[in-house]
Amino acid sequence: MADIIRVGLIQAKNDVHGDEPVHLHKEKAIEKHERMVREAAAKGAQIICLQEIFYGPYFCAEQQTKWYESAEEVPNGPTVQLFSSLARELGTVLILPVYERVGIGTYYNTAAVIDADGTYLGKYRKQHIPHVGVGSSGCGFWEKYYFKPGNLGYPVFETAFAKVGVYICYDRHFPEGARLLGLNGAEIVFNPSATVAGLSEYLWKLEQPAHAVANGYYVAAINRVGTEAPWNMGEFYGQSYLVDPRGQFVAIGSRDQDEVVLAEMDRNKIHEVRDTWQFYRDRRPETYEDMVKLLP
């Protein structure tokens, strides 16, 4: 593996009104994101990550069975198959966040990891599922209506260019999984998100740089942009970024524009930081037992 890896982060608006049928959302969003993936690859991106459930609006703003229609099998669904072919054509690694259906009616918030030859390497299922209102209009992050908690642990995928971990949106508030991704060998952790101003923006540039420093790896944070009708529950404030193991921002996107954010990660910096800060050597897991006890 080369020491310098070029990373592409894709942030985009949803262009279709939420009242429109699911198939139209998927069609338009997939068309847009395929175009943006091609743009990122043309600019040299070797690993590309899309935003959380990229092929539609953030439908968890409401609780409607309509949106179950957007779920697909992973990896055998049409979207993963399409982007696997695209990864093979372009020679890029893709982190593809989709809505996963298992069996008749079990659903997960999932990201498929596809290698640069189009091989499906595996998936991460979002572990921490929020259920919280936003504002006074009845909208919110009503994710427990749509998703079961993940059950595949915190896998790390050995891709053609780097060892990749995935954390999805709300997961970023929990340091435990972030540490496990590091212990499992991640060199870079991607966090595809959908998060609005007024609720968590003040944490956006605090938590994930802290994860990067505590674990000695890069973190790539991706957020969509714009407001989404008919809910209009807040502004998705973009600002997708790559942060290095020292907590320094390598690149950051705009607040309100469709954009391919490009940045380079340097594997040498990971070694340098871990040789300086021996957090893995000095951790004391035998003293942390109370952390995994259930509260009464």
TrEMBL record:
This is Acyltransferase. It comes from Brevibacillus brevis (Bacillus brevis). PANTHER family: BETA-UREIDOPROPIONASE, NITRILASE C965.09-RELATED. Pfam families: CN_hydrolase (PF00795). SUPFAM superfamilies: Carbon-nitrogen hydrolase. One of its GO terms (molecular function) is hydrolase activity, acting on carbon-nitrogen (but not peptide) bonds, in linear amides. Signal peptide: none annotated. Residues 5-267 form the CN hydrolase domain. It comes from the Bacteria. InterPro entries: Aliph_Amidase/BUP (IPR050345), C-N_Hydrolase (IPR003010), C-N_Hydrolase_sf (IPR036526). The keyword Transferase applies. The keyword Acyltransferase applies. The lineage of its organism: Bacteria, Bacillati, Bacillota, Bacilli, Bacillales. Keywords: Acyltransferase, Hydrolase, Transferase.
